[in-house]
Amino acid sequence: MPPCADCIADSAGGLTFDVTDTGEPGAALLVLRRRGGHEEVRLPLTPAGDGRLRAALPSSVPLPEGRWDAFAQVAGGAPHRLAPGVNDLRSLVARVPSGALGHVAVRIPYASGFPAPPGPERPTPRHGRLTVRSWLRAPHAEAVELTRGERGLGVRGRVYGVALAPDAYAEVCHRDATGTLVRAEVAVERTEFRFTVAYDALRPGDWDLWLRPAGEGGPRVRVARLLDDIADKKTVLLHPRTVVRTSHGPLMAGPYYTWDNDLSVTVAPAH
After folding, report:
1. What CATH number does the domain located at 4-137 have?
2. What are the φ and ψ backbone dihedral angles of 92, each rounded to 5 degrees?
3. Which numeric CATH code is attached to 141-269?
4. Residue 176: φ, ψ to 5°
5. Could you check whether 4-137 and 141-269 share the same CATH topology?
6. Chain-centre distance of CA 172, in angstroms?
7. pLDDT attached to residue 263
8. Which residues partner with 15 through β-bridges?
9. For the CA atoms of the chain, what is the radius of gyration?
10. Spatial separation of the C-alpha atoms in residues 228 and 205, rounded to whole Å
């Protein structure tokens, strides 16, 4: 049975890992290894009592955006994948970063890998392997609320790391056609923005939502929902679609989140 790790998230963006002590002699490390690359973050595991070892990943330690698989390594031996235990992510649910550092860092531990084994055997509270999903956005446009309308999608959000200018606007860009975009006016109130995506202006396909918080000359920021405890929203936060009559015929349109938790709109023929 692989060693198991419980995770506790704090409101600053840090994580604490409590790992089952295997009893092997020698210094122990918790290793986070980024998928698709060679980056590693190595954290010392120290005794925490009750047969546990503890490692801390503070928010001040950079963790580039991606999926990081978690391992335990003892005395320079081979790293062993960690099984997920209990994740205490309550501090992430209502998290509102200050944005003073110019970026937003998000780390969400979750179970990845194989499904539960058959039969009554249940070696850990959650099956699979422990992975940390990390985002590092500078600046960031958080989708706070989506409103379903008869002819469009209302988006209310908040920006971090950049000021909203009076000439801010949104771009709705067709994913498969370079240069094809629809511009939407933005209402600004301090750090919050609002805009509406008009479905009848869109042709079939997938459309990605971007914010221009400082106008045309400023940064182009992907609209996403990151500030909660859901690592993969694509299969969890499902939104109904609306039938709209357009110049392209009757279409079904609605919002969804990508595998990176970015906000997009899909449009397809109604039939």
Report:
1. 2.60.40
2. -85, -20
3. 2.60.40
4. -100, 5
5. yes
6. 20
7. 98
8. 9, 57
9. 22
10. 28
pLDDT band of residue 21 (cuts 50, 70, 90) is confident
d(CA 160, CA 105) in angstroms, rounded, equals 11
pLDDT at 151: 83
What are the sequence ranges of the domains in the chain?
A: 4-137, 141-269
Task: Encode pLDDT of 182-231 as tens digits.
Answer: 999 999 999 999 999 999 899 899 999 999 999 998 999 999 999 999 99
Reading the block at residue 10, the tokens are 């704090």
Reported pTM: 0.87
Which has the higher per-residue pLDDT, 141 or 114? Answer: 141
What end-to-end distance do the CA atoms of the chain give, in Å?
50
Q: Is 142 helix (H, G, I), strand (E, B) or coil?
A: strand
DSSP code at position 125 = S
- Among the listed residues 70, 162, 54, the one whose alpha carbon sits nearest the alpha carbon of residue 107: 70
Query: Is pLDDT of 126 > 70?
Result: no
Instruction: For strands 263-269 and 249-257, give the pairing.
Output: antiparallel
Under 8 Å between Cβ of 75 and 25 = yes
Cα gap 164→214, rounded to integer Å: 6
d(CA 130, CA 110): 6
Contacts of residue 118, defined as CB under 8 A and 6 or more positions apart, other chains included, come to none
Residues 270, 248: Cα–Cα separation, whole Å: 11
> How many H-runs (helices) and E-runs (strands) does the chain carry?
1, 21
pLDDT on residue 101: 67
